[in-house]
Design a protein that fits this description.
The protein has no helices and 11 strands. The chain has about 110 residues and is mostly beta strands. The protein has one domain: Immunoglobulins (Immunoglobulin-like), CATH 2.60.40.10.
């Protein structure tokens, strides 16, 4: 099941975005999951990848406890976007695990 998440960032911030995989039984071990990608696009349902602003490549922070991270480089322009995050699970099946809004606002510094 895909989780809806709203991400809010200040332009230039590079603090990692962390996702936690869990189900009714607790943490989901993602040690054997691969190809974590978070795509940011101005359209919620794009017909192609042509307008994609960035694709962040994710990494496992702690596989047994289901923690995965994505570190933005801080260059996404100020605007309201949409995102989805996908991976290949341990059955080698593509899985969209999160989607929602991705808002970048102007900071003072």
């Amino acid at each position: 099941m895909t989780t809806t998440v709203d991400i809010k960032r200040k332009r230039g911030n590079t603090r990692r975005i962390v996702f936690h995989f869990f189900d009714d039984f607790g943490d989901v071990n993602v040690t054997n999951f691969t190809e974590f990608k978070l795509s940011v696009n101005p359209s919620q349902y794009p017909k192609s990848d042509i307008d994609t602003v960035v694709v962040l490549i994710g990494y496992i922070i702690d596989g047994p406890t289901g923690r995965v991270g994505f570190t933005p480089d801080g260059t996404i322009p100020v605007a309201d976007y949409f995102f989805d995050a996908k991976c290949m699970d341990d059955n080698d099946e593509s899985y969209t695990f999160a989607e929602g809004t991705y808002k970048v606002t102007q900071g003072i510094t």
